[in-house]
Write a structure and sequence with these properties.
Length: 397
């Protein structure tokens, strides 16, 4: 019998069997408790995220849309609608585009090499805390214009904003406190920038933006920075750790990437599909519409996109439960789609490619200490929070 509770701790352990059942039996499952439809098939989600009848003005996360924690939602790019959304996105996009990504790649490569070199003599490291998190937060801070000296402490704070506790639905007091502290920190950074002038980075772009002659209020500048700090710091490490884990489980594919570094991009793209960390995001209907072909949705009702379910839909991906670096799927939902496609998609792919190349060139024989790996248990995120790997210690220099 079909039963789906997005806050069930049993669901946290392994959501994929229930996802398969949803795709087959209830691709637009309606839960009256939340007045919300849950979409699980790839094409249905692909179509819905570009449907102009839906907006993010009331939030996107499970805490906002399912639990009604509207105090968590602040006006930012993700919550705007065209034409304001289009104008702000156009202002911010150059900082994340292909040209900006190419300019950052050498620095990212040097950082990744340095972080790995620090651990070579120890013969062990954590793929997240020692490598990917340190890289992603520094690249994010470089783009945004935040002080690099604060990067590591803010990375810890970002992780705390997603704190969960068994028996508690949604965020905890720790998570809410970390959110407040992070917003206060970003507000101080913005105030300091206003006083001393610009550095031609993303903070400057936000401060210079005008919509109908109006500058962004201070709280909206902070909200946009908050959104980008979270997005730029938290997701890349989980996908990278998932990529290392899957390559370890498939040693023949790992050997291929080690022998041909150009395959790192394909391996990371498949990891983005297979190990996508964001379980769901949603929207609210602003007008009566339909989803999944003929399912009516009334204005005011909500929709949750089960991205991880869609990324393993057999209607889109042959043998979707098989990890295959040669799949080269022409489209995935890991960066969302249409006007909500992730601004940082190019940056994230560059970081993942750089990290995989560095690890597989220096320690291609790594082993994962699976007994001590830690996984996230949440209705919102999945993946590793810690992934210890071991290898033969070697001298540096």
């Amino acid at each position: 019998m079909l039963s789906f509770d997005p806050f069930s701790e049993r669901y946290f352990d392994d959501p994929f069997p229930i996802y398969a059942q949803l795709r087959d039996e209830a691709p637009a499952l309606y839960l009256e408790e939340y007045d919300c439809f849950f979409l699980s098939r790839f094409q249905d989600v692909w179509d819905a995220v570009s449907n102009p009848a839906f907006s993010h003005r009331r939030g996107t996360t499970s805490m906002e849309l399912l639990l009604g924690n509207t105090d968590l939602h602040r006006r930012a790019l993700s919550g705007l609608v065209p034409p304001e959304h289009t104008a702000l996105r156009k202002t911010l996009a150059p900082a994340f585009g292909p040209s900006a990504t190419r300019r950052l790649e050498a620095e990212a490569q040097a950082l990744a090499a340095g972080f790995l070199a620090e651990r070579l003599e120890a013969g062990e490291l954590d793929a997240i805390s020692d490598l990917a998190l340190r890289l992603s937060v520094r690249v994010a801070f470089r783009i945004l214009g935040l002080p690099l000296s604060d990067a590591d402490s803010v990375a810890v704070q970002v992780g705390q904003t997603f704190d969960r506790q068994l028996g508690t639905r949604g965020n905890t007091d720790t998570g809410r406190g970390a959110t407040v502290d992070l917003r206060e920190y970003l507000g101080e950074c913005v105030d300091a920038r206003r006083k001393r002038g610009g550095n031609a980075d993303l903070i400057d772009r936000l401060l210079a933006f005008r919509w109908e002659g109006r500058a962004l209020p201070p709280e909206e500048v902070v909200s946009n920075l908050y959104l980008m700090v979270i997005g730029g710091t938290e997701t890349l490490p989980k996908v990278f750790a998932g990529a290392l884990y899957q390559l370890w489980r498939h040693p023949e594919q790992r050997a291929e990437v080690a022998a041909n570094p150009d395959l790192a991009a394909d391996a990371f793209w498949e990891a983005l599909r297979y190990e996508m960390p964001t379980l769901m995001l949603g929207a609210t209907a602003e007008a009566d519409t339909t989803v999944c072909g003929d399912q009516p949705v009334r204005a005011g009702q909500k929709l949750m996109h089960l991205f991880c379910a869609a990324n393993r839909d057999e209607r889109e991906f042959p043998e979707p439960e098989r990890f295959d670096i040669h799949r080269r799927a022409p489209r995935i939902l890991s960066f969302n789609h249409a006007r909500h496609r992730c601004l940082g998609a190019h940056i994230a792919q560059m970081e993942g490619r750089v990290l995989l190349r560095e690890v597989l060139s220096r320690i291609p024989d790594y082993e994962i200490d699976e007994a001590h790996a830690l996984r996230i248990r949440s209705e919102f995120f999945r993946g590793f929070s810690s992934l210890p790997i071991r290898f033969a210690a070697r001298r540096v220099g």
